[in-house]
């Protein structure tokens, strides 16, 4: 399955590195990545592929949330199909 | 990137900040094939069938929640109107049927099971009579069973004999649950033009025209609509209407995705998507606050009906295109105790029962979760129901009454029902009598425009 990881918060050194390492450690591939500043916030979006990973999505989301807390940003992961349903006809 | 950062942030915010969720996935199951001469045997068949078909419901709901990141608040079951199923038996008291449903609901881990129901818009058959008489006991002795009676339709008119009975049933149910502020009445709805595929409680039942089973989905999202129109302050109604429509479209697409996926995993057909804005008592999940965001100081003031009319219509228009099959109630709910903004409006003195009734002409349900004084006369409750049924009948829409005469409490006092049902200040009713009006009985004929054949 594919998922979208969104990272929103104030910018600081190492956010992309920490999140990417976290994903790599779990065999999650990053298909696409973009970063911008939206309404004054650092916003990073990643399209990730979980098909080779053995990590279960439930615990994975919790761990990402915890990682977000240590970095002072908000990290969320959702199924790619939710975005497809809402934004593409 | 396939999606723009703005699109991704918009969706993530809907769930994380604006409390978007799937309010209910409701599995409709026909029990018509469980009817037989023995009540015991029939209830055994019901139990077996429900455990077999609805067994995986809660787990499937949880799987989708985790996998998709979309909260599914309630997993529920609706069944064929029990009056139809139980009529073949010799049972006089149908409360054991409610107990069976309650036990099954607890075993399945679902929060409500709907369908302790009768359809009596034109006449009361023997099974309907026995079911109606059993409603107060059935609701007072069970926790998760919801009951409903359809007493009117645009095609048949209003069965005023049944309306008269409803006043008595509601008072009796309140009396039997007096220690919980009349909570039993919160699980009972009186309908005009009841939809057969409604996923929302307490009025859900699996209509006799439905197939063996199907999955219906109720989407919510008042917080999302409010956040969307916050960006249109000062803009004209054209802009406002368009913004609501687009947002409703997005919310509904999410519901369609979840509904189709849940139906696939359960191996049942996808029924309908009900795109109602259903509030909860939590701050940020209120329909009243949407009306206020449109420019009203407090809900209930002049302009509230127009605001609600536009909101309901735009939600329908946005949603219809986003789903393969829309049904149920679809629009905006204005339950009093379940909406923090509605409660605040009553407290502020801007919302009274008469204005609330006017607003039900354009909302998607009716007088919902309204607490009234415990000493309200039976005939007055029936008359409140008659008014609401007339609105539904003449306007070809669903209307409903879920009203709680709170035992021992007066207007202005607080009634607490707990959880998603919330709590509400008790609202005053007119003191003038409707006794002679209700005593007439009989049927109010269907309006002339019902003859469309």
TrEMBL record, chain A:
HAMAP family with a match to the protein in the record: UPF0237
Q: Which organism is it from?
A: bioreactor metagenome
Q: Which InterPro entries match?
A: ACT-like_dom_sf, ACT_dom, UPF0237/GcvR_regulator, UPF0237_ACT
Query: What's this protein's name?
Result: ACT domain-containing protein
Positions of the ACT domain? 4-78
The cross-references to Pfam families, in alphabetical order and at most eight, read: ACT_6 (PF13740)
Lineage here is: unclassified sequences, metagenomes, ecological metagenomes
Q: Which CDD domains match?
A: ACT_1ZPV
UniProtKB/TrEMBL annotation, chain B:
Could you tell me which CDD domains the record lists for this protein? RNR_PFL_like_DUF711
Give the SUPFAM superfamilies listed for this entry: PFL-like glycyl radical enzymes
Q: Which InterPro entries match?
A: UPF0210
Name recorded for this polypeptide: Uncharacterized protein
| Source organism of the structure | bioreactor metagenome
Do you know which Pfam families this protein is assigned to? DUF711 (PF05167)
Matches recorded under PANTHER family = UPF0210 PROTEIN MJ1665, UPF0210 PROTEIN SPR0218
Query: Where is the chain membrane-spanning?
Result: none
